[in-house]
């Protein structure tokens, strides 16, 4: 009952005109950013962070806007996947396999509506999972001491990006780079400047919002400048056809949606797995379960559209669980949201539910509101979102650059921060050329200082005894999970990646 009464309080916070309008704006912009190939939820949220801060929004309104963008982008990724066979983001990649064949059969409208419905089912039940699971995780997290927190942060680093990145060595390099960036500034214990090279502006360390906008948003602009893709994503007119799927199709796909929601939510809760893995597991499981009899997957089977969409949207909700309850992001986009919380002087973790219940429950209530908005928006407005695909990048990218520069300058008022942001943009562009994942860098920049202070505190409390890091059953459990999470992708990751690349090849052959 306490949970439901807290949720009712959250709806009282979320149901104000300002928050409803912000949720509506976030859903609309997020769907557009998800639909545009290459942007995706991480970039979408990163681009709009400066806008949230420039408008002077408080903690709850800022999070409502940005999480609505997050959910909207997860919905929007399916649009270009189905219509153009170009995934809007990586989680939407699996939707191409059956979504585009449905479009080629003249069932594009039905595929879009069905995928919107599956996205709603995944997000809706994942939000309920967040409501009931996060407070239980908080109870466990209250048992944490400095050694356990250090092990938890190590778990996040060892699992994040394992399956999705090209290899573990690149993920480890990115994490080390992020931790190195976190060391810049004045040491909080000794007061000695570190890696500042005499630059006074670096005494406070690197602002992680500057790093995030540079790495995600500006690097996208540099990639565009390199390739100069001035034409629109499509010049051909896409026939939408009938919008509403027949009731028989909904009945056929309902069990698929429910199964995929459970699998996707579990993948989202695991630190580092995220929506890409949720989408892949859901599609693969459904194909093995029902396709041996029908042999229709990959040829326009509606269940092949419903499974990845329910899975990746459920994973998006699941990734918020460890972020809110433990302060450890479950995906790249939640790492960006974690940075927003920290910049608002709100520390995610077990005390968040007691110290800032208005923020947590207002956010969760807003997720329900955003879900219904997205369902209502994504079916009748499909034609509008389809036209967005025709916007040439030469128009879109200058807008992204302008929002980034104006927003960051509006937050800090420092031209030095603009130079740092450009530096991070160049670094992000170079790292993306070498297929180095950016999320571990962000995670290192965000959690590096907390990781260091917990390590120092644990060692100091036990008079310099390093074995204190494995001195409790909880710490040992976290280390075991971390090691397994690091080793498993080495064993199974290659198989998963080869299957995912095979899917990409199949998409390419269909497109050709």
From TrEMBL:
Domain of life assignment: Bacteria
Segments crossing the lipid bilayer: 20-39, 45-71, 111-134, 140-160, 172-188, 208-225, 262-285, 323-347, 359-379, 399-422, 434-452, 472-493
Keyword line: Membrane, Transmembrane, Transmembrane helix
Pfam family, one: TctA
DUF112 domain: residues covered: 20-443
InterPro entries according to UniProt: DUF112_TM
PANTHER family from the UniProt entry: TRICARBOXYLIC TRANSPORT PROTEIN
Protein name per the record: Tripartite tricarboxylate transporter TctA
């Amino acid at each position: 009952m306490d949970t439901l009464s807290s949720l009712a309080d959250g709806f009282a916070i979320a149901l104000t005109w300002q928050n409803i309008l912000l949720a509506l704006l976030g859903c609309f912009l997020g769907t557009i950013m998800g639909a545009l190939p290459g942007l995706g939820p991480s970039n979408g949220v990163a681009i709009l962070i400066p806008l949230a801060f420039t408008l002077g929004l408080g903690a709850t309104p800022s999070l409502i806007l940005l999480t609505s963008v997050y959910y909207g982008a997860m919905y929007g990724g399916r649009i270009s996947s189905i219509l153009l066979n170009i995934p809007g983001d990586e989680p939407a990649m699996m939707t191409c396999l059956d979504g585009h064949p449905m479009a080629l059969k003249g069932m594009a409208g039905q595929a879009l509506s069905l995928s919107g419905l599956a996205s709603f089912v995944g997000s809706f039940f994942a939000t309920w999972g967040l409501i009931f699971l996060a407070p239980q995780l908080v109870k466990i997290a209250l048992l944490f001491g400095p050694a356990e927190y250090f092990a938890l942060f190590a778990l996040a680093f060892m699992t994040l990006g394992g399956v999705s990145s090209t290899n573990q060595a690149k993920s480890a390099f990115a994490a080390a780079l992020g931790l190195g960036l976190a060391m810049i500034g004045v040491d909080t214990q000794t007061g000695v400047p570190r890696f500042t090279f005499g630059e006074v502006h670096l005494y406070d360390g690197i602002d992680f919002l500057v790093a995030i906008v540079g790495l995600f948003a500006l690097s996208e602009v540099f990639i565009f400048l390199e390739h100069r893709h001035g034409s629109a994503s499509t010049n051909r007119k896409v026939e939408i056809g009938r919008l509403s799927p027949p009731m028989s199709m909904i009945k056929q796909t309902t069990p698929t949606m429910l199964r995929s929601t459970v699998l996707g939510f579990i993948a989202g809760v695991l630190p580092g797995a995220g929506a890409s893995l949720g989408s892949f597991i859901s599609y693969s499981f459904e194909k093995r379960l029902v396709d041996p009899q029908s042999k229709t997957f990959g040829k326009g089977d509606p269940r092949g559209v419903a499974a990845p969409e329910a899975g990746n949207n459920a994973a998006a909700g699941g990734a918020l669980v460890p972020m809110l309850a433990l302060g450890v992001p479950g995906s790249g986009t939640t790492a960006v949201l974690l940075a927003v919380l920290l910049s608002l002087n709100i520390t995610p973790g077990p005390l968040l539910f007691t110290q800032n219940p208005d923020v947590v429950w207002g956010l969760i209530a807003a997720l329900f509101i955003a879900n219904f908005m997205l369902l209502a928006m994504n079916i009748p407005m499909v034609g509008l979102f389809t036209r967005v695909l025709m916007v040439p990048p030469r128009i879109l990218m200058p807008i992204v650059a302008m929002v980034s520069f104006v927003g960051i300058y509006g937050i800090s008022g420092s031209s030095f921060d603009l130079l740092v942001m450009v530096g991070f943009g160049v670094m992000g562009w170079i790292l993306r050329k070498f297929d180095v994942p950016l999320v571990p860098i962000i995670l290192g920049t965000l959690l590096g200082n907390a990781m260091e202070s917990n390590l120092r505190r644990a060692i100091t409390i036990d008079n310099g005894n390093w074995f204190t890091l494995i001195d409790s059953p909880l710490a040992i459990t976290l280390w075991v999970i971390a090691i397994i999470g690091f080793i498993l992708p080495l064993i199974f990751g290659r198989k998963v990646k080869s299957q995912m690349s095979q899917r990409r090849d199949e998409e390419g052959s269909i497109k050709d």
